[in-house]
Amino acid sequence: MANYYSGRIAEHGQTAAGVDWNSQAGQIMRFNQLLKVVDSSQPYSIADIGCGYGALLDHLSQLGHATRYIGVDIALPMIEAARSRIAASPDVTFRLANSPGEIVDYSVASGIFNVRLGRTDEEWLAYLVETLDMMNISSRTGFSFNCLTSYSDADRMRGDLFYANPLDLFDLCKRRYSRRVALLHDYELYEFTMIVRK
C-alpha cells in the first residue's frame, strides 16, 4: 500500500489525484462529512489517519478550527510532501506510522479502506476492523471514517477496490465502540461515512 500511494503522489503531486481522489471537490465533500464528528466550538486535537500531503489540515485552517493536528501516513513520500509544504509548528506533527502514537480528541480516516489491491474481502475487512480498533483506543471523544459502498452500481465496481457493507459496519460500530453512531449515506458519492461519538 505504501508503494501504491508513493506512486500516486510521484505521478500527480500534491493534488487530490495524488492521494487517489477524482477531484478536489470530492475530497472537500469527504472532509466535511468526516468533520461532522467534531465540536469545533472549542479547540480540539485530531489525528488524520492516512494524511497524505496534509490536505485536511488546509481545510481545517480554512474553516477556522483551532486544532492540534497529527498527520499519520505509511508512505514516506506523503509525509515528506506534507512536511515540505506545511511550516513546522508545535500544533502540527506528521508521522510515518499507522497510528498517532498518542491519545487525541478525534481521529478521522479518509480513503484508507478503498484500495485493497490483491487482498481478499476477508483479509481487507480484518485490516479495516483492526484500524477501527486503533482509532477507538486513540480517540477520547469520537472518530469517523469513510468507505466505498457495497450499494455502488455493479458495472462501476472495480476488482482492486473494497466496497464495504454499510449496515454491517454500522452494526459493528454500535456493538463494539459506542451507542452513538451515525451512518451518512446521503451525499453525492459512491461511499458512506460513519461517525462514532463516545
UniProtKB/TrEMBL annotation:
It comes from Rhizobium johnstonii (strain DSM 114642 / LMG 32736 / 3841) (Rhizobium leguminosarum bv. viciae). It holds the Pfam family Methyltransf_25. InterPro entries: Methyltransf_25, SAM-dependent_MTases_sf. Residues 46-98 form the Methyltransferase domain. CDD domains: AdoMet_MTases. Gene3D superfamilies: Vaccinia Virus protein VP39 (3.40.50.150). This is Methyltransferase domain-containing protein.
